[in-house]
Amino acid sequence: MSTVGVFASVFDSFGRILLVRHGYGARQWSTPGGRVEPGESPVAALLREATEEIACEIRISHLIGIYASPYRDDLVLSFHATLASGAPQACLPEITDVMFSGRNSLPPDLPFTRRIRIQDAFDRFRAIVRVFDSADSLAPSFDMDVLSHTKA
Fold first, then answer.
1. Which residue, 9, 10, 78, 94, could crosslink 18 as a Cys pair with Cβ 3.0–4.6 Å?
2. Residue of 63, 79, 67, 75 lying closest to 139 (CA atoms)
3. pTM value?
4. In the sheet where 57-69 sits, what is the strand order?
5. Cβ proximity of 134 and 90 under 8 Å
6. Tens digit of pLDDT for each residue in 43-93?
7. SS3 of 65-89
């Protein structure tokens, strides 16, 4: 069965994006978010995940993009969001650290698919569709469409 993930790109007043470090698995960095539960809407899932991971309420403003990884049977929805209340903090044990990062200071070990999603957020894309044909490359059939996509 396919998994559906939802993630929020939240920027501070300096234009840096909020990242969270997972406390499980490879302890990788990502934007706040997670999997949609059965019977849950993507918006409800993202609001829940933000509360669980960073102890904040967020306000979702628009869809940045849809990211499909058919090789993993995985679909991710990325949204632009703002902090509605609270200050981001790590919620143990799921999240061990939070930080705001500039485009040029992203963690070097950020997985390719997440890096692309985060770069799209920095580029202010709206409703872009990306397909990954492996863990480290985009599907060739989407390259030209993505390059010609106009920013909002």
1. 10
2. 67
3. 0.89
4. 33-35, 3-10, 74-85, 57-69, 128-134, 137-138
5. no
6. 999 999 999 999 999 999 999 999 999 999 999 999 999 999 999 999 999
7. EEEEEHHHCEEEEEEEEEEEECCCC
